[in-house]
Amino acid sequence: MARKSSLLKRTLASLCFILALYAIINTFISSTATLKLDRSFPFSSANSVIVSDEFSSQDTDLLNSSGKSLSPVKIYLYDVPTRFTYGVIENHGIARGGKPVPEVTDLKYPGHQHMAEWFLFTDLLRPESERIGSAVVRVFDPEEADLFYVPFFSSLSLIVNPIRPATGSDQQQRKLVYSDEETQDAFMEWLGKQDYWKRNNGRDHVIIAQDPNALYRLIDRVKNSILLVSDFGRLRADQASLVKDVIVPYSHRINTYTGDIGVENRKTLLFFMGNRYRKEGGKIRDMLFNILEQEQDVIIKHGTQSRESRRAATHGMHTSKFCLNPAGDTPSACRLFDSVVSLCVPVIVSDSIELPFEDVIDYSKIAVFFDSVSAAKPGFLMSKLRRISKERILDYQREMKKIKRYFEYTDSNGTVNEIWRQVSQKLPLIKLMINREKRVIHRDGDEPDCSCLCSNQTGIRARL
Amino acid sequence: MARKSSLLKRTLASLCFILALYAIINTFISSTATLKLDRSFPFSSANSVIVSDEFSSQDTDLLNSSGKSLSPVKIYLYDVPTRFTYGVIENHGIARGGKPVPEVTDLKYPGHQHMAEWFLFTDLLRPESERIGSAVVRVFDPEEADLFYVPFFSSLSLIVNPIRPATGSDQQQRKLVYSDEETQDAFMEWLGKQDYWKRNNGRDHVIIAQDPNALYRLIDRVKNSILLVSDFGRLRADQASLVKDVIVPYSHRINTYTGDIGVENRKTLLFFMGNRYRKEGGKIRDMLFNILEQEQDVIIKHGTQSRESRRAATHGMHTSKFCLNPAGDTPSACRLFDSVVSLCVPVIVSDSIELPFEDVIDYSKIAVFFDSVSAAKPGFLMSKLRRISKERILDYQREMKKIKRYFEYTDSNGTVNEIWRQVSQKLPLIKLMINREKRVIHRDGDEPDCSCLCSNQTGIRARL
Predict the structure, then answer these.
(1) Which end of chain B is more exposed for a tag (fewer CB within 10 A), N or C?
(2) Which residue in the set B27, B70, B462 is minimally distant from A41, CB to CB?
């Protein structure tokens, strides 16, 4: 009996040992594999590095069952002269009474709706281990890169001077004044000399010009690149398009509403606060003021940017059911993102607006759209809004809650990752165009050779 | 001592038991996870199902560290009436003296350069476990689908009748004659009734029309869809484009050259065999015949399709350094793919040619391009070819060897997978357009609203 029991024990022990060994080996192997897979998760396997990698890569671990490379989209961050990055921040400070600093790279970007250029730049500067879920990985050898990021702070450069620079004859004064124009020209001179810029005529470069007027002197020279812009208000169809470029959101400046969905604490039906007078499409604003000023449950106020007005806007957006988003000088406005994070249903009156991340966001689920002709008809807009049920408003709010992370630049899985994902999606077409241009036949006098995607059949028809 | 040993044994046994339990649980969990991850490998994580999945998916295992869904691109295969698939094969047989068959689904597609429609259809019919490395996964519930594949054999339908159908008054004869036109119309009638077709005006549908004349009656009604075509020779810019559509290769009809790279067994400098007389861009053929017929080391022969001429073409392509690829009635020709699998460097004289998979294939590395004006100058083409070194030819051959799997429809990691990868890359822009059309403002009389990618700066300039 004792021998039998001992034999049983020994058999059990051996079995356990084998199992344990298997457990340890297996656990080790799978966690290694998982680690490798994890790195590949956020990246599109559908990118064009496949061919070259497949033939040159030593990294056979990173090949999947079909032999395809799982390499991420590789981006090279240009080491641009600090004049074009931190130097712009310094000048922005100096123009507001600040002093030059000993180490410009210690400077932080001033809070602003055009902060995308800061967030994207600093994201790429972070160690790769902190860039979780990013669709692009930074490479330090340009030869490896699929794409090239050029981090010129073009939007901040535009507003360094609160007003136009003085043109007086006082040399001393002129020297101190910052010139966006000069900076743009110096930037282009620098960029134009870069070998990788010349290699594909800039097609594989990513350039940010978030303010609709940013880089205005250079657009024709950088139009081959993937542009990160807020809208196409100042850009012609041959300069920018939904196919080539990425629409990026403004940083919201209103605090995120942290409460739950609901209409009980939102007594105001429609809220707007902002500049009444705007050019071009923004002329609708004055018309809307005339129509809406006398309406019940509507707060519509003319106001310019200040700490006080931002406080009032925050209160208004957090306590209203709908927030009016009329066009500004150009179709986009940061108010849309303020509305979304406030869970205040955007009422968009901007006929040519383009919206960020529209492949993953169905804006008809979070916003109400009016064409400007209909919106300018007395009574039309308000009667439509009054007919929207509480349940429908809650649906809009629910959807906004789901998608608002896309508009949070500071969210580790927010705007920055989404912009890179959008950029990485451009790569196949960019690679196609680069390869195609090496062999395509052109004749002098040919029309530009364009590939287009057109929309002319559906959508909201304006009632003229 | 005995007690001590027993205690030790019991402790060991318990430890082993715990380890074993851990092993089993861990192994189970990781293999489940690995299985799921494996399925996600070939698929782009950068697709637009992210939002909806994230909010509705129960499948939390399929979320990565950043919370993004790893769902593949999901494609629904329409169960079209057999009239539009196997029925076309049957009619093709009948028109050549065959008999109706009891079970049409037993039929195999006749060997032909337009076999893509057969390979794509049968690929989707295979069990998912055999579809290794595919960028799309078939779903059986259309509600889950990102894209919809419509498997009408439009190219075979076009050539069911070797000649135009009889128009005599003999009713019996007319009844037997197949009509591509009628089939196209019946197909459109069927497609137009499908709810998912109507939902997004066909934008998320994938339709194959490989022969440049296939579906010619319907193109304007299916132009919103992703079209799989050989070239844009018969298509206007508003019907098809590199942005929306996918260029698919013809099936090569010459056997693959299985030998190594080298020029020793390739005594002929330039080879061509095919129809001398073609319309439109193909008029270059007759000019090239006139120039090249008298050249040394050149074999240029007029020939039409037959078993005999295919044997001669195989021999010619396998024993020549360069193979001429002039435009046909439309810019593309199956000869290009015959050349590549023959390791015979293609000499492409076709100004408007579009090439398959150009995001991953740099054709300037595998082929020589001449604009037709230069190629038609006596002596020009031959003097250029004669100056190409042996080393350069070996480079071309080496590259062809690397990429030829892209032109092998029967390779499990060949053309079919690559076409699906190209299709899946269209999804973000398709989703964007679908979402955008729900809210975009149109005015009657507006110009079509187009997003384009243009090329007008580089490439080979024609020397007029």
Answers:
(1) N
(2) B70
